[in-house]
Amino acid sequence: MARAGLTPERLVAAAAELADEAGLAQVTASAVARRFDVRAASLYSHIGGTDDLRTGVALLALREMADRVAEALAGRSGRDALAAFAGAYRDYARAHPGRYEAARLPLDHETAMASAGVRHSELARAVLRGYDIAEPDQTHAVRLLGSVFHGYISLEAATGFSHTPVDSDASWQWTLDRLDALLRSGSAG
Amino acid sequence: MARAGLTPERLVAAAAELADEAGLAQVTASAVARRFDVRAASLYSHIGGTDDLRTGVALLALREMADRVAEALAGRSGRDALAAFAGAYRDYARAHPGRYEAARLPLDHETAMASAGVRHSELARAVLRGYDIAEPDQTHAVRLLGSVFHGYISLEAATGFSHTPVDSDASWQWTLDRLDALLRSGSAG
DNA sequence: GCATTTGCCTAAAGCCTGTAGGAAACCTAC
DNA sequence: GTAGGTTTCCTACAGGCTTTAGGCAAATGC
């Protein structure tokens, strides 16, 4: 019997594809095994189980998003940086909905601290450097950015904002404009 | 054999409790049956199955949230209304995390239109009446409110914003202040 | 070439979903 | 009060996913 060449990395990569195609709920040891033409039991020497697989997808997504956001941010500041930051997340979520979904899985503290999650808040702070906001307002602003972009993306994914005639892209631009103005009003708030 | 008195309403109510106690993922036909000391197969004449049960929790949560938000909004306007609106959602999510989670489930279009979901956007528009914002900006603003509050609540639930010394309530108040100012700057963009 | 390690296998137990058909409890009405 | 009909819950079963245990075959190393 020829070997399939299973590794944790390849299993997680397949799980990520499956998540994007069919949703995170379909990411199971069984379904991933099927992709490799292998029995489900064979995965268990490489990964801990279904939860592990999903956590792996989450960590992959956090890394990939941080990479893309960092790239989008290079050489930009102010409103440009804000739009690039937000756009990178939105584009990623649209291209990889299952991975994005996985990225919102709760991680235990240790795993979270070792993940690319920490880079995300650093990147948000990089955006805010264009706005001259001191602590503790800077932390508040990091949370605001995370909230509004994650919130928008997740509502857009769920509903598509589809039951009104107003275009979602227009709302996105409007939101970026207003956030830019909000941040520009600075620590003086 | 004494009858357990199963009804769709009682099953959904038990599912909602279970969701709050153990998370939406634990809401299964099996687990709910256990609560009634009944075989899982017995549920299937009352509800369609596990998905139905979760959808039922979602619809319940949407109704309950709309009720609470409407009550919180009564007699308020401006920043007061904004804070009451946002606070009602946040309080509900903290008191009923599983129901809140369920409320974000995607519903098919028909179900969504018949749900209390439509009341939520009406309530957001009620808050915005205190700010004199015309269409299409009003729609943009409805989406912004939904995004930022849902985003904040879901990030707060996932991470507790716990790995920094800055208090989450302080960020919440800061966010309300800034949003109030943002909306007050009005249609003048 | 032979021994060891590694990789995938089969087997099996346990839990969950959902369908089918049966029996007991409840209701209605005579 | 009891006969008939309906409702409610039951048992039985088929099928899927998870995960552990133990085996054989392929790859690796000496």
Q: Any idea what the shape of chain A is?
A: elongated
Q: Structural class, from secondary structure content of chain A?
A: mainly alpha
* Biggest sheet record of chain A: none
Low-confidence stretches of chain A: none
Q: Count the helices of chain A. How many?
A: 9
- The CATH class name of chain A reads Mainly Alpha
Query: Biggest interface: chains and residue counts?
Result: A-B, 38 and 38 residues
Query: What is the CATH architecture assignment of chain A?
Result: Orthogonal Bundle
Portion of residues within helices of chain A = 55-70%
What percentage of amino acids of chain A are in beta strands?
under 5%
How many strands of chain A?
A: 0
Q: In angstroms, what separates the terminal alpha carbons of chain A?
A: 69 Å
Oligomeric assembly: homodimer
- Mean of all residue-level pLDDT scores of chain A: 94
Topology pattern of chain A, helix = H, strand = E: HHHHHHHHH
DNA-binding region (chains A, B): 28-47
Domain HTH tetR-type (chains A, B): 5-65
Keywords (chains A, B): DNA-binding, Transcription, Transcription regulation
Protein name (chains A, B): WHG domain-containing protein
Describe what you observe in this structure.
The structure is a homodimer of 189-residue chains. The first copy, chain A, has 9 helices and no strands. By secondary structure, chain A is mostly helical. Chain A is elongated. In chain A, helix 3 (50-73) crosses helix 5 and helix 3 (50-73) packs parallel to helix 7 (117-128). Chain A starts with 7 loop residues before the first helix and ends in a 5-residue tail after the last helix. Chain A has one domain (54-188): Tetracycline Repressor, domain 2, CATH 1.10.357. The mean pLDDT of chain A is 94. In chain A, 68% of the residues lie in helices and 0% in strands. The A-B interface holds A 104, 106, 109, 112-113, 135-137, 139-140, 143-144, 146-152, 154-155, 158-159, 161, 163-164, 166, 168, 170-171, 174-175, 177-178, 181-182, 185, 189 and B 104, 106, 109, 112-113, 135-137, 139-140, 143-144, 146-152, 154-155, 158-159, 161, 163-164, 166, 168, 170-171, 174-175, 177-178, 181-182, 185, 189. Chain A binds a DNA duplex (30 and 30 nucleotides) through residues 1-6, 28-31, 38-42, 44-46, 49-50.
